[in-house]
DNA sequence: CTGAAAGCGCTTACAG
DNA sequence: CTGAAAGCGCTTACAG
């Protein structure tokens, strides 16, 4: 097998304690023995078993991050932000992608639990009846889902949605479609409520479609429904759906913008690359990721009875080429 | 702190051994005591410390996956394939994204090493002088990079590249641009060699640009260079660069297809969504991911002196809307 | 079927 | 500054 601390101890003629200190807590050992130990350890090809170290030290210097779907462009910016923040605090990030299988979340979280110092779960899809079990795996913070007694970072959809609806009504649209996201998605419920409220406030008629999965193909499928319904403007649950919608409308010769206005949500990197460029509601995913790191690491050394923090972040509309005045 | 095995043992009046078996190796214990133990453990909210379990059992049931950049659409299909295969073999996948910082790869691999049963490193960017150290963290398999004595899955670029160049020359193009990827990228060297060979074989003139990072913005930047050079056809290191190139050309009123032909590499999901749709060389990332899982898990229980397997996979051209006959 | 003991590979008070 | 000892929370031969 591989070289252990005991092997190095034997080779140096010192105790395991001293070797351990020379490697992990250098100040506590005589400089000359320290260097001797380190050299011998290196020569022997000693690589500390970080599992064992974590078990005794009770620390991993790792943050665990669980996301629903790494392929959804909404998540990479969050992941990058989590990594940037965690790195700046000396932690490594390990990611689990549950591939939109909500039932797996709890299992993955348990697998990670002791291997990390804290868990960030983005948009937990975990069914309600298991959510409490997930929340127990503290330190843990939810992004985009609230549970009493659990730390969370919440992105408030209402401002951005209000701006989107105002933008459309200002362009003359009176009938607005909303493409629902996944049926049980917490985010979709938030967005659905927000669009209903905003349309009611603006006196616009709202027609809902879906639910749709947050994938391009779902948007492609939505396109024909939307067009058949005669909507002049539509807001999609997310950019993936909006992009699929646009692709299919393009294909059918329906001009996005002039013929039908489309608004996405997430302001993902692709929204500026699409044709036409996609008007989208910016969701501060990066800020949310950074905030989640701060919270979960604070939690790690907070007393158990401290009230778990809840941070709120706002959204706003980014206008691009896919929205135009109502045709005719 | 949390409930330990010893706590449960005390509560049941049994030894830790029996409790351990009741939970992890149920067949070795009397059914009635087994159920009693399990019930009490559940009631006490016992959650086994998987770190400790892994340390003694020497198994994690986890596969570690290291990728250069999760936001690059080339990687998610590989990740998904790795997960699908690993799941079917009862393993969980933990992902590390090194965010295009090659120097971090070795460190991340070490952090993961004992927490997983095997490591898959996709497109290792690790500098040559550290690569051997990385390769020592066995069981490990590289995807898209070769190192003697190390298991790997290699995607052979030459077939797809030859098809791409043939396609362009058949359309009448005589001067073909190639947008290089990152300078030290192993993949770029492979692709560069392949395009040089293919152009030489077809008697086409090759003009190289770059290096460019595999990002949309780099493609945007490349667009003006390419257009100024008078190329009628260009092959990009990857789809990201190709998409950025197309976006900028669109913006300048240069029609991709009729005015200039563009070919990407990777056949990422977005290539079918772009405007126009992007002709691209399909790279069998999913197959590579699945193969890597098979190899790394085999390695885990292979004798140390077994020759590490090397698997080769082929590429092919997918023709879409971004390539047309040479103008004029 | 169950238990006592040793051990996985480290770290960390506690002495000296 | 260094070492002996106990311990982190489990698992697993070995006895019985």
From TrEMBL, chains A, B:
InterPro entries attached to this UniProt entry: HTH_LacI, LacI/GalR-like_sensor, Lambda_DNA-bd_dom_sf, Peripla_BP_I
GO terms for MF: alanine racemase activity; DNA-binding transcription factor activity; transcription cis-regulatory region binding
Keywords, comma-separated and alphabetical: DNA-binding, Isomerase, Transcription, Transcription regulation
Keyword Cell wall biogenesis/degradation: no
EC number in record: 5.1.1.1
Domain HTH lacI-type: from-to ranges: 3-57
Broad enzyme group: isomerase
Entry superkingdom: Bacteria
Gene3D superfamilies: 3.40.50.2300, lambda repressor-like DNA-binding domains
Protein name in the entry: Transcriptional regulator, LacI family
Organism: Actinoalloteichus fjordicus
């Amino acid at each position: 097998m591989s070289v252990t601390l005991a092997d190095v101890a034997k080779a140096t003629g010192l105790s395991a304690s001293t070797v351990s200190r020379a490697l992990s807590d250098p100040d506590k050992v005589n400089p000359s023995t320290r260097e001797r130990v380190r050299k011998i350890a290196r020569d022997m090809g000693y690589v500390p078993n970080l599992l064992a170290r974590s078990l005794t030290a009770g620390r991993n210097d790792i943050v665990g991050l669980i996301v629903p779907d790494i392929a959804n462009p909404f998540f990479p910016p969050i992941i990058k932000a989590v990594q940037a923040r965690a790195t700046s605090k000396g932690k490594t990030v390990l990611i689990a992608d549950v591939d939109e299988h909500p039932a797996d979340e709890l299992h993955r979280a348990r697998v990670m639990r002791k291997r990390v110092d804290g868990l960030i779960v983005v948009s937990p899809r975990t069914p309600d009846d298991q959510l409490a079990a997930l929340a127990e795996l503290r330190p843990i913070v939810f992004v985009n889902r609230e549970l009493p007694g659990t730390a969370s970072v919440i992105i408030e959809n209402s401002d951005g949605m209000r701006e989107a609806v105002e933008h459309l009504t200002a362009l003359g649209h009176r009938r607005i479609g909303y493409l629902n996201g996944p049926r049980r998605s917490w985010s979709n419920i938030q967005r659905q409520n927000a669009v209903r409220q905003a349309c009611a406030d603006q006196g616009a008629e709202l027609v809902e479609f879906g639910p749709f999965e947050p994938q391009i193909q779902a948007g492609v499928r939505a396109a024909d429904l939307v067009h058949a319904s005669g909507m002049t403007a539509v807001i999609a649950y997310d950019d993936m759906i909006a992009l699929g919608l646009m692709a299919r409308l393009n294909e059918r010769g329906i001009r996005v913008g002039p013929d039908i206005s489309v608004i996405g949500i997430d302001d993902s990197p692709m929204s500026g690359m699409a044709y036409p460029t996609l008007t989208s509601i910016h969701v501060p995913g990066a800020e949310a990721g950074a905030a989640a790191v701060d919270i979960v690491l604070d939690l790690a050394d907070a007393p158990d009875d401290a009230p778990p923090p809840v941070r709120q972040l706002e959204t706003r509309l980014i206008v691009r080429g896919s929205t135009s005045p109502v045709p005719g």
